[in-house]
Amino acid sequence: HRLLLSKYPCSLAQDISDLMDEELYPRFSNRRHAKIQVRGEKEVLHHYALWAQTAIEVIEIVEREIMMETNNRIAPQKGFDYITRAMEDDDGVGPNTLHHTIIRYCCDVLGALRKEALNNVRRENDMKIQGIRTS
């Protein structure tokens, strides 16, 4: 993300600021339309970078929960359910607000993977316990 964005001559914030100047970027001019196009490209890159970073953070939480389950320990209070609920309850205002597609991906897709992984660990733990009882 940063590598791709660094290839642009200015930042997204600068593009937004530049587009406020109708003298430098007159309405309906090719220059303005080019700036709008590039701004859109940067917005897409920022969106997917935020999506990836958020998913990585949620995956790290899921990994901790799986390790805790593997070792028969109690998962931390601020685990997956807590974090995803906080993401869903966010008021949607501000620069750090997550787009609904990011929230849905983290809750639905990563949630399903988490559930499957935890079920696998629980089955393995149950099998170990059954093996100990039959020995």
What does this structure look like?
The protein is mainly alpha-helical and 135 residues long. The protein is built from 5 helices and no strands. The chain has helices spanning 2-6, 12-18, 30-70, 80-89, 100-134. The longest helix is centred in the middle third of the chain and has 41 residues, at 30-70. The termini are far apart.
| Element-by-element helix/strand order | HHHHH
Strand pairing plus helix content: what structural class?
Answer: mainly alpha
Distance between the termini: 54 Å
Radius of gyration: 23 Å
**What form results from the Cα inertia axes?**
elongated
Mean pLDDT: 89
**Strand residue content:** under 5%
- Percent of residues in helices: over 70%
The total of helices stands at 5
The unreliable regions are: none
Largest sheet: none
- Count all strands and give the number: 0
Task: Give a brief rundown of this model.
The chain is built from five helices and no strands.
Write the layout of secondary structure elements.
Elements: H1 2-6, H2 12-18, H3 30-70, H4 80-89, H5 100-134
Helix pairs in contact: 2-3, 3-5, 4-5
Supply database-style keywords:
elongated; mainly alpha; 0% strand; single chain; 135 residues
